Amino acid sequence: MSKKQRLALTEIFAHLPFTIAGDPAEQRVRMEAALTTVPLPDNVTSTPGTLGGVPVLTIDAEGVDSSKVVLHFHGGVYVLGSARAGAGLAAALGRHAGMRVISVDYRLAPENPYPAALEDAVAVYRAVLAQPPASQIAASGESAGGGLTAALLLRLREASLPLPTASVLLSPWVDLTLTGQSMTSKASVDPSVLTPEGLRIRVPDYLGGADPVTPFISPIFADLTGLPRCSSKRVLTRSCSTMPFASRPPPPRTTSRSRCRSPRKCHTSFKPSPPSWTRARRRWPAQARSCAATSTTRMPYETATQSTTHHGHS
Predict the structure, then answer these.
(1) Domains of the chain (ranges plus CATH)?
(2) What element of type H or E holds 170?
(3) Which pTM value belongs to this model?
(4) CA–CA dist 188, 209 (Å, integer)
(5) What gap in Å lies between CA 107 and CA 115, rounded to an integer?
(6) Burial degree of 229 (CB within 10 A; 0-12, 13-18, 19+)
(7) CA end-to-end span of the chain, whole Å?
(8) Mind listing the pLDDT tens digit for each residue in 272-293?
(9) 267 contacts: CB under 8 Å, gap ≥ 6
(10) Side-chain-facing half-sphere of 10: CA atoms under 13 Å
(11) Fewer CB within a 10 Å sphere, N or C end of the chain?
């Protein structure tokens, strides 16, 4: 990212109308309003529905192959955000991949702490898997959604379920222990909305008393053997210290554990986009397309109509 782009992003983040440290109910409204100001392109449709009892948003760009699916998870520190708020990024991924996107409105903390979001992710994946084969499914997520994507892959492997053909983790939050070096080394360049103080407030909301070293919470501590190809190395900016995504030993136990920190996150909801996101859009969809082409079976994929089921969203 050039200095000019960095300054532009800093200016944008400095004037965001929401904060991760505030009251969740209020900040969800603010975040939703900020991220839905710009409508989706005219050639993109979004249809609410449910899969596996979980609210989803089906996003189709003109000309995509609806028999191939990107299962996407939005960001928001597991407390904020929604499929609708993240539809712009999801639509861009689907358009460049030539695939339908199913964006998941997983349950949010603190009303629904771990493992609620992961349970929702698995439920939706099982529902998707019942129609297109795994060779026609890719998984993606940004920020907390990237960490959730990694956790989903681990859970699917544990359950011996067919894995997606590819995955893309966009600045994923894979370490909730607050022990990464970037906690301090990148503090001066992290977006102002993602302050260490704010993250410390939000992590206990998601943990609900669970151990942050749990691999399904902090996949950085997991054994990644056998997981599908992941494009995270190409996606992240050079300053992200916890990637390429590779497991590492858990931090030493202390009587008072610091609780949270993500690698640096840069969201494409705002312009200008960092060059790394542009490269990601060009590279990983081709990978997903090439993998998905291995199956000759074409099955229609439809989401259920919108139901009254809710999962703790405000």
Answers:
(1) 3-242+259-292 (3.40.50.1820)
(2) strand 166-170
(3) 0.76
(4) 30
(5) 10
(6) middle
(7) 36
(8) 233 333 444 455 455 555 444 4
(9) 75, 89, 142, 143, 171, 191
(10) 11
(11) C
